Amino acid sequence: MPNREREVDLARRAKVIEWLKTEVVDHVAHLLKGIWEGSQVKIVDGLASLISCGYILGRRLGISYRSLDEAIVDKMKKHRQDGHQLEDWYGDISALEEHLRKR
Predict the structure, then answer these.
(1) How confident is the model over 25-46, as pLDDT tens digits?
(2) Which of 38, 47, 81, 91 has the most CB within a 10 Å radius?
(3) Are 60 and 40 in contact (CB under 8 A)?
(4) In whole angstroms, how far apart are CA 93 and each of 15, 28, 79, 88, 90?
(5) d(Cα 16, Cα 59) in Å, to the nearest integer?
(6) What is the pLDDT at residue 35?
(7) Number of helices (H) and strands (E), helices first, in the chain?
(8) For the chain, percent helix, then strand, then coil, each to nearest 5?
(9) From which domain of life does this come (predicted)?
């Protein structure tokens, strides 16, 4: 690939990453607005958008979907072992860990 094409590709990749970062912020705002309004439709949409954007941003940064899934499972395992409050109170940590393992 000629030098100019590499520069254009690098600039395009950087621009996409910056755009995805703004999308994350936008999705958080959408989610918070949905929570404020008590709209389950907006909450689900905001969470789905935020999670999918996180996966795509990770991919653009060189992290595979599988690696991200494994990192989340590892994090849940550590939280469970450390006695995280959400695990103690609701069992959320082990429920998410089990959900991800079944996929």
Answers:
(1) 999 999 999 999 999 999 999 9
(2) 47
(3) no
(4) 35, 21, 7, 9, 8
(5) 11
(6) 98
(7) 5, 0
(8) 85, 0, 15
(9) Bacteria
